[in-house]
Amino acid sequence: MALLELRDVRKVYHLGGEEIRALDGITLDIEGGEFVSIIGPSGSGTSTLMHILGCLDTPSHGTVKLDGTPIQQASARELAQMRNRKIGFVFQFFNLLPKLNVVQNVELPMIYAGLNGKQRREKALKALDAVQMGHRLKNRPSQLSGGQQQRVAIARALVNDPKIIFADEPTGNLDTHTGEIILELFRSLSQQGRTVIIVTHNPEIAAVTPRRIEIRNGKIADRVDARLAGQEKAALLSKSSAVQPSP
Amino acid sequence: MSLWNAIEVGLKEIWAHKFRSLLTMLGIILGVSSLVAMSAMVTGMEKGAREALIAVGGLQKVRVEGQPVPPEQRHLRDFARGVTLSDVYALQGSAPEIEKVSPEMRLDVPPTITANGKFTRTFMTSGVWPVQLEMMEHKVEHGRMFNEVDDELARSVCVIGTGIRDDLWGDPERTGEEIIPLGKTLSINGYPFTVVGMFEHYESEQEHRERALKKAEEAERAAKGLTNSVAGPRRDRGWNGGGRRGGFAFWIKNHTVYLPLNTMWVKLVSGVTNVPAEPKLSNLEIKIHDVSTLNLALTEIRNVLMINHHGVEDFSFRTQEDWADQINQYIRNARLSGGLISGISLLVGGIGIMNIILASISERIREIGIRKAVGAGGQDVFVQIVVESVVIAVIGGAVGLGTSLGLLQLIAMVSPTDNAPIITLSAMAFAFGASVLVGVLAGLFPAIKAARMNVIQALRYD
Question: How far B42 CA sits from the closest chain A CA (Å)?
């Protein structure tokens, strides 16, 4: 069974009498341990897809199963628990709390998981060591560089030992060099066996991942954009449908 | 999220906006301190008002007085013999609801009392049994109360209040030394009586303070070399109603002269007026066991007396209920108005808190979004916001309790002679509880708003 199972997922917004189909019948499986990118121009539905995959939102139609649990009808409380235990988020703008220092930021998800102070501190230090940020524990986010902030954000995403890590334009606010380092970090996480899903509109970033899912007008595009070729030409040449998992 | 985490976050949030939080707390501080101060002052007033009531025996006391026969019983008026000692014995034997009964015999006209070349009149000259002492809450400070033997033998002895002493031998305030006229003779309507005892000086708390203050002032004047205690020549400053509210009760009590009942009858009454066969009492003082059964006791007393009077209703009752009701009414009004002011103050404080929490959550929309994205449920956010609101209110409440103490000291400094405020623990607990409640209520609406916030929109918010 796949880690993420989407069947005919639709998301419809109503804006002043007009119906906007942000997602229009997405069927998709993502297996545990995959390194996937979801790519598409802005407005194509990539964000909506990520929100649904990340349990931030529920679909208007269709079924979503995360690790065997259907979430299309989950309550807000259940969704929050799913986010807390099974999902880690990394955002474009880092989204660290400015009033908390590095350790406290990393401890945040564990507060809601109900861990005690000692356990929190232990796990936070471990996660920060894993992203080479063990030396800036007491700094506020504003005292760190963008790359460092993103490392802290990754540590926060990792700290509850989630099944899936979502990264929404993780390099969008970083210079090229730092961006590469962060992508390298994601790759190593993937090699450690974690499922990593990167949402981006930058083909160069999507090219890093073995599997790419392109979204156009709320649907999964048949053909992957030629510009996505990169090193992984084979994927493009075989015209593989994104529905099937890539080898 | 544990409660402790929520409190920690709340405290941090308050500390991050110190001045803003302080201003917000001010409403609660004012509300709580005014609530406690008001309650303390009213309790003080209540004590002052009840002092006088207690001085005359309290609510448990019932007086039975003679009254003319009612019109429908006019034909029976020859059988009306008034209140007599046989009523006392009947009540003692047949009315279990009463604790004690004390007969009292007065003269129709207040007698002239002379001694030391001075005279005074007091309508509180009564012939009584020694039990009257407890009945009227009297305390003999010097000498003794006359006893049953004095009564039996109709000895010419009396016990007086300090007011009589002041009138006849001099006021210690003026003469500078306290005269204790034990063994001295005074005459009542020309008959000599030996003073065997004197009561203590009765006064209200307020009079006591006024006297102490006056003394201190005089000492100060004396230290400055001024001899006259009052500016200008000595004069009578006119009647001031025997002191303020309730003071009259103490004045009367101090102007009491008690003689043995038998002496009163033998020496002063029987030879003077047209005498009925049996000594006629002016009234009975009755103390009942329990105020809550007042009606039952009154019915019982009435039944016993009606039998003893052969159905002629030539007596009536007097209780202190109206006085007590008046005090209760007055206290209730004072509490109500004070409570209203404090309540409005707390309400305004609560609105202030709600306002600031609303401002705070709209500043922190993104933070709420982030917290939700990493797994905070609606209830976690709700608890956090309510706790923040309660923390502000609780700190405000605690400071308010402290402030109320200062406020009361200030009031005591401004008017030292008024009834001392009494701070009760229950008032403090109530005020503190009210502040916590206000905190919870003020936090509810913002907390619901924050808990319902859409996580995606909150994350995108700039």
Answer: 47
In this complex, do B2 and A114 lie within 8 Å of one another by their Cβ atoms? yes
Distances in whole angstroms, Cα of residue B187 to Cα of each of B1, B119, B140, B193, B259: 87, 9, 21, 6, 12
At position B117, the amino acid (one-letter code) is: G
The helix or strand, by DSSP H or E, that contains position B168, with its residue range, turns out to be helix B162-168
Q: Which residues of B393-402 are buried (b: 16+ CB within 10 A; e: fewer)?
A: bbbbbbbbbe
Search chain B and give the residue with CA nearest A106. B374
> Which residue in B284, B276, B438, B424 sits closest to B347, CA to CA?
B438
Give A99's contacts in chain B (Cβ within 8 Å): 12, 16
**Secondary structure E strands in A40-86:** 61-66, 69-70
Interval B48-66 mean pLDDT: 82
Each residue of A212-236: pLDDT tens digit? 888 888 888 876 555 554 444 444 4
Question: Helix B294-308 vs helix B85-94: angle between axes, to the nearest 10 degrees?
Answer: 130
ipTM above 0.90, yes or no: no
Instruction: For residue range B154-187, list pLDDT tens digits in order.
Output: 899 999 999 999 889 888 877 778 888 999 999 9
DSSP letters, B375-407, are: T--HHHHHHHHHHHHHHHHHHHHHHHHHHHHHH
Structure-token pair, residue B164: 């009589």
User: How would DSSP label each residue in B224-253?
Assistant: TT---SSSSS-------SSSSTTHHHHHHH
- Which residues is A195 bridged to in the sheet? A164
CA distance A57 to chain B (A): 8
Q: Which of A105, A97, A106 is nearest to A124 (CA)?
A: A106
